[in-house]
Design goal:
alpha/beta, 4-stranded parallel β-sheet, Amidohydro-rel, Amidohydrolase-related domain-containing protein, Metal_Hydrolase, hydrolase activity
């Protein structure tokens, strides 16, 4: 029967290091054969690239996810050992742009539910990208009118 898809977890770009101890970026060209093979086999690639933007900020009284991160500091990506959120999300966009024949599903609103304008632009540019909305109801719920317009516009691309 075989695999019906591939899932790339957020450890790529945040934790995985190469044999030289360098962080492997989401758009690292050494990984291109994986995405080219997925295209040739017509299997989708699900990419869970990052967590909410607040997870990349200091765990302090100004962080909207303070309570969650205080209880689970292992979910934090703040510090010199991690790249900034914007760098990781742009690597993801580069990966999607590079493989136009590969079907991608950007998990959790393509990793950037806080910025539907950014996700919209990527969806417009990349017709081979789909998204899911799991785990991001909080981020979507605080922008109800924008989210509604987004859902209507991309209803055939949301899982």
């Amino acid at each position: 029967m075989g695999a019906s898809g591939i899932k790339i977890w957020k450890n790529l770009g945040l934790h995985v290091k190469d044999q030289n101890g360098k962080l492997v970026k989401v758009d690292d060209p050494r990984l291109d054969p994986i995405f080219e093979t997925a295209a040739s086999l017509e299997v989708p690639v699900y990419m869970h690239i990052s967590d909410p933007v607040a997870f990349f900020d200091p765990i302090d009284q100004f962080n909207e996810r303070w309570e969650e991160l205080n209880e689970r500091p292992d979910r934090s990506f703040f510090g010199p050992q991690f790249p900034p959120f914007q760098e990781v999300i742009e690597q993801f966009a580069n990966r999607i742009r590079r493989h136009k024949k590969t079907v991608f599903v950007g998990c959790h609103v393509a990793g950037y539910a806080e910025n539907l304008a950014w996700v919209s632009a990527l969806l417009d540019e990349c017709p081979h990208l789909y998204i899911d909305i799991s785990g991001r109801i909080g981020e979507l719920g605080r922008q109800p009118y924008t989210a509604r317009k987004f859902f209507l516009k991309y209803s055939n691309r949301i899982i």
